[in-house]
Amino acid sequence: MAKTTEPSPTILENGQPEEQRFTFSQHPTLEDIRKMQAHFTDERDWNQFHQPRNLLLALVGEVGEVAELFQWKGEVAEGLPDWSGKEKEQLSHELSDVLIYLVELAEKCHVDLPQAVLDKMALNRQKYPANKVQGSAKKYTEYQE
Amino acid sequence: MAKTTEPSPTILENGQPEEQRFTFSQHPTLEDIRKMQAHFTDERDWNQFHQPRNLLLALVGEVGEVAELFQWKGEVAEGLPDWSGKEKEQLSHELSDVLIYLVELAEKCHVDLPQAVLDKMALNRQKYPANKVQGSAKKYTEYQE
Amino acid sequence: MAKTTEPSPTILENGQPEEQRFTFSQHPTLEDIRKMQAHFTDERDWNQFHQPRNLLLALVGEVGEVAELFQWKGEVAEGLPDWSGKEKEQLSHELSDVLIYLVELAEKCHVDLPQAVLDKMALNRQKYPANKVQGSAKKYTEYQE
Amino acid sequence: MAKTTEPSPTILENGQPEEQRFTFSQHPTLEDIRKMQAHFTDERDWNQFHQPRNLLLALVGEVGEVAELFQWKGEVAEGLPDWSGKEKEQLSHELSDVLIYLVELAEKCHVDLPQAVLDKMALNRQKYPANKVQGSAKKYTEYQE
Question: ipTM, 2 decimals?
Answer without folding.
Answer: 0.86
